[in-house]
Amino acid sequence: MEKHARELNKRYFGGGLAWIQICYTTEQNAHTFGICNTTNRTIRVSDRLREMPKFVHDYVVVHELAHLKVPKHGPEFWKLVNRYPKTERARGYLMAVGMGD
Ligand SMILES: [Zn+2]
Predict the structure, then answer these.
(1) Tens digit of pLDDT per residue, the chain (101 long)?
(2) How many helices (H) and strands (E) does the chain have?
(3) CA of 90 to the centre of ligand 1 (A)
């Protein structure tokens, strides 16, 4: 997961993001795919993602990484996330399984 996040950081954010820890969690509400704590710079991703297609998993990591830069879901945030080309597809997938934002 750590290595995966570093690759996505390089590809979509020019390697400009820094975090303390990124890992899976089972301890979160079923409707949330991830949580980014911008205070201690830690990211938790639902372990349900392990069973989902790679493009969905990648999207979630990109989404949570983008929160390190822009904490709230606004136009600036989505502009950043949309650097990931399958954003719309992944959001549709997550919505269909009840984990949409
Ligand atoms: Zn978000």
Answers:
(1) 999 999 999 999 999 999 999 999 987 666 789 999 999 999 999 999 999 999 999 999 999 999 999 999 999 999 999 999 999 999 999 999 999 87
(2) 4, 3
(3) 13
> What CATH code would you report for 2-96?
3.30.2010.10
Distance 60 CA to ligand 1 centre (A): 9
Per-domain residue ranges of the chain? 2-96
Q: How far is ligand 1, taken at its centre, from the CA of residue 64, in Å?
A: 6
CA distance 55 to 69: 22
The pTM (predicted TM-score) of the whole model is 0.94
Question: Which residue, chain included where needed, has tokens 């993602």?
Answer: 49
